[in-house]
Amino acid sequence: MTTWIQSVIDGIGPLDERAMREAEERLGQLTKPPGSLGRLEALAVRLAGITGVAVPPAPLKKAVVVMAADHGVCEEGVSAFPQEVTPQMVLNFLNGGAAINVLSRQTGADVVCVDIGVKGELKHEKLLSRKVRPQGTANIARGPAMSRGEAERAISVGMELAVELYGQGYRLLATGEMGIGNTTPSAALLAVLAGLDVKEAVGRGTGVNEEGLLRKQDAVLRAIETNRPDPGDAMDALAKVGGLEIAGLAGLILGAAAKRCPVVVDGFISSVAALVACRMAPSARDYLIPSHLSGERGHRLVLQELGLEPMLHLEMRLGEGTGAALCFPLIDAAGGVLREMATFDSAGVSRG
User: Fold this and answer.
1) In the annotation, is 305 catalytic?
2) Which of 65, 69, 193, 251 is an S-S bond match for 155, by CB 3.0 to 4.6 Å?
């Protein structure tokens, strides 16, 4: 592991217990029965611990980071969509026409799109071009996805972007991704890191039929048998059976945690990236806010492995960061309650 990556990991501190106590005390003084706002109150306390600020001064500046990359395992027929859709959708993001753009506009968030390994050349004034491998990953069913050095570079891309966005005033990040075929390496990583049977980890992704599902399961099984990733070494597993956008998101999570910046985790692929990050730095888990439970088979298992409970259950499975964006209003609401709600004393209301 590079010195830079290790230094970022070493910089991830514990939650601020003082700020959490102050937030809890304030919640107890507000004009409501104790605990009556349920998980919204728990979220408010968690945000205080992450940011170190008991009462946020204003809604946090938000960005959804969409990491995009291609996957050689598409050669195995694991997706219902052709690989050409990856660059086409990236341009759709950049032009503001995708679901994540719509939801981000409604929730006051910016969309930051990163080409970390899309096959072919993409040009757009809003695109962040941070390619690690020009053609995306290699076919994991036949060999390693990338070298360990490339996996480290992809993680560094995410870390550096977290620092960059923090410097631009962003204080709330969400994970998004785009990459045709990327539920396959995500399932492979889940199976390896959580010790699961391949059939438990592999779902239908973009909606493959029964024959396609069997091809996916076979591709993941061959990937694990061929590459023999080490379940005790997340970087090894990432390099052998992972994806560039997964690595980039893992790095984003680690970099954000080191800056005490909360990260809203989207669906299956993003949660697998979170699992990789937490295997590298267990303390990073404290900085994660799980958004929703995806309809993808393995998502519940990843969240269980992380010990996280999602806020929303909407049967979504789109990716892009869409589920995470929908949680931004809940996070704003949690901060707003602490900041704007009257206390019993200030409102002249008798306590129970």
Assistant:
1) no
2) 251
